[in-house]
Amino acid sequence: NRVALPFFDRNLVTKGITGVPALTSTDLSLTAVADNVMHEIDLEKDCLPVHSTRSQVLRIMERGKIVVPVIQELPGTKDAILVGSITKINLEKIVDLNSWDDENDTVDLLQLPSKHEASLVNRAPLTVPPNTTMREVYILLRVTGGIFRRQMIAFVTEHGRLVGSVDFEHLLILKHD
What is the pTM of this model? Predict the structure, then answer.
């Protein structure tokens, strides 16, 4: 692999899917996600607290994220624990289902009454520690359905605290040397 990529990997590179060869045939695949592809999460801008206001939900929807982490803030710190995730589609359902009298009224995202069989919040999102290799994250996302649903994401947590995320689509277009 040091001379040239294997035949099938070269075909993927010509189709613009450079991440798969980088994650299966190079030394890059053995590096930690925190060092290369992790997107650091701003807890204020990128997450919803368990008790969210209408304005917080609308603000996060405007950002266009497909999957949003739901966090429980730790009192006295700037850290937060990941308690779930929610899709943009389910956020739209929350806005439609709830009647907020005031912009400051809150809704408990974990206690939402749901007319649907499944909860609107995924209470067990995929998490990995920061030292997980990029190859391991790729395999986890692929096995859990990432190849079919491009919104697949792994949240990077350290001792339960949310520090970042890695999304499957970003892994697929990863450049290698």
Answer: 0.79
